[in-house]
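pasting for the record
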Amino acid sequence: MAKKVIVTGATGLLGRQVVRAFDEAGWEVTGTAVDEFIYTGFSRAKPPQILKVNLSDGDEVGKLLDEVKPQVLVHCAAEKSPDRCANDPVGTKQLNIEASRLLAEQTASRDVLLIYISTDYVFDGTPGAAPYEADAETNPPNFYGETKRDGEKAVLGGSNRAVVLRVPLLYGSGENHESAVNTLMDVIWNKSGEDRISMEHWAIRYPTNTEDVARVLKDIAEKYTTTDISTLPRTLQFSSEDRCTKYEICENLSQVLALPISHIVANDKVDTNSSGESNNPDI
């Protein structure tokens, strides 16, 4: 009998690849999303179902778990948009912290493995401090990072079968606006028509493909459902090994797109308070 998994945020940039990775590995997949969504892109006659579920409603979550009876729940859903985080701090905390706490409680009572997707924004990124070990002291540089750090504490404290996976800046197949890496393609095409675009060239990032993260999540699910979890680490980190600044990302993309970037100028002046450097989890 196939194992079952629930993926929250299943229609997002990462969630779509997580659904696909588990589906292709033979798992029976159920996804949740904020809005009704018909999942396309699968050639199978019976694609994974995507359901509209309020993750803050204990009755809805409990009903979902009791009907699906999964071995694993992968919690990808989160509020990460800087604007929405700033404009709706209460709603952001509700999704990033309280809904995560509720999922931990509901999965723990049913002996379901919970994998919580977190971020490297639980660390402040002080120049020279990275790379961070998984057990390093956290110090989020912004509100988003604080909510994800508190979400980690909520799930690890709420379930002895919860695992945290921290990931960095992500990119992958989808609309350009879904990822700050993808968005840079619009900059290279210079859709704004600017003569000169200053691009940060000092902060090191590790852009990571969502397909790779999804594969790792599937491996974690299989490992942690076949091994005594008490013998395994509860906080994990995964990223590409490729180090680059935003300007270097542009250089790489320009080669792929075969487009010049003479309008993009490298800015190597260190400014941790500049817009987008310390308060934008997408860049």
